[in-house]
Q: What sequence folds into this?
């Protein structure tokens, strides 16, 4: 997780007014960063620097209703992540990350979160960021 926090994109996210003080709440920060890794809409909002307080509250909520929706959303999210792979080279990179002992989901999530940079994704995985 620490490697993820050092990424320029995450530093930009943490500098947004909606996130003031979240670094002092490590559990919330970790949940938020994990959500950013798997939520394409939140990723877009971060990239466009349009994260709002309401988006953060929604990302951090983990009530029973959200958990029941999570199962259905997980399949859609996995398919959306797979669709972001651009051919054989990306598939092989994810395969090499799996070969390091990580699940396909972990490898894919880290690879995409790190801008398809295999070395950065491996570092993220080894530091426990996925």
A:
């Amino acid at each position: 997780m620490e490697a993820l926090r050092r990424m320029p994109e995450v530093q930009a996210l943490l500098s947004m007014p909606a996130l003031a003080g979240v670094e002092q709440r490590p559990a919330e920060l970790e949940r938020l960063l994990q959500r950013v890794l798997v939520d394409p809409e939140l990723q877009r909002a971060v990239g466009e620097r349009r994260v709002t307080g309401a988006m953060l509250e929604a990302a951090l909520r983990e009530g029973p209703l959200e958990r029941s929706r999570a199962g259905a959303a997980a399949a859609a999210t996995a398919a959306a992540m797979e669709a972001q792979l651009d051919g054989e080279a990306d598939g092989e990179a994810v395969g090499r990350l799996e070969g390091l002992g990580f699940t396909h989901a972990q490898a894919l999530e880290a690879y995409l979160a790190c801008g398809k940079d295999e070395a950065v994704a491996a570092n993220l995985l080894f530091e426990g960021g996925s």
About this structure: The domain at 74-130 is CATH 1.10.8.10 (Helicase, Ruva Protein; domain 3).
